[in-house]
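Course assignment 3, question 2. Fill in each field.
Student: A.L.
Task: Predict the tertiary structure for the chain below.
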Amino acid sequence: MFAVISVASFRQNAADRDEPAPDTQEWISNADAGGGDLTSLTLRGGRHWNAVNAAFSLANGAVVASAHEEPGFALLAFDAAPVEIVATVTGVAPSSGIVFGFVASDNYWAVVAPQGSSHWTVTRVSNGTGTVVATAAPVDQGAVTLDIRRVDGRVEVLVDGVLIPVFIRDEITRGSAVGLLAGPGDVSQTQWTSFATTSATGGSASPG
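Answer field:
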C-alpha cells in the first residue's frame, strides 16, 4: 500500500534531533518568466545551470527543452548531494522527469515516465543501461510534484506526496549533480515550473 507522508513532518525531524536547520534553495520558480536560455540565469552565489545534450529555455514561467536526439540534462552540481529535491512538472513527455546522482550521461538516477509506460518510475542508468527500480503512480499530464529524499541510508521517492513503497539504498556519489531530464525528442512538451533542493549544513552547490 502507498503511504502518504507529510512534508512538514519530514522537515520537523531535523528540529526534533536538534540538528542545524537545512538550507532550501529554489532554483526555478514562476518568477523566472522573462524568457531566455536557462544557463544564462545567474543563481545564488553566481552559479549557473549546466546543459548537456540539449538546450533549455525559459518560457511563460516554465523551463522547456529544445530539439535533441539523446537524453538532455540541465544540471546543478553539489559538493554534497542534497537531502531533498522537489520539482513540479506539467505535460510530461516520455522519458522526461528529474535526475539525481548524475555522474555522466550514462550514469545517473532518474524519476521519469518511460517510453511505452503509463506510470512514473525510478530508473537507475549504469554504463548506459537503464534498469527500472520501482514503479509509482500513473502519469498525469497535469501538474505533478516529484519529491526525492535521502533518509538514513536510503532514498525515498514520492509522487504528489505518495511514497513509492520500495527500499532504495542510498548510493549517491558525493559531488554528483541533480536537475532536469528531457527524453529524446521532448521539444517544449515537458514543462518544469519549479525545482528546489534542500542541503544539509555545508552542502552548497558548486559553481556552474
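Instructor remarks: The longest strand covers residues 129-138. Residues 7-16 form the longest helix (10 residues).
Grade: pending
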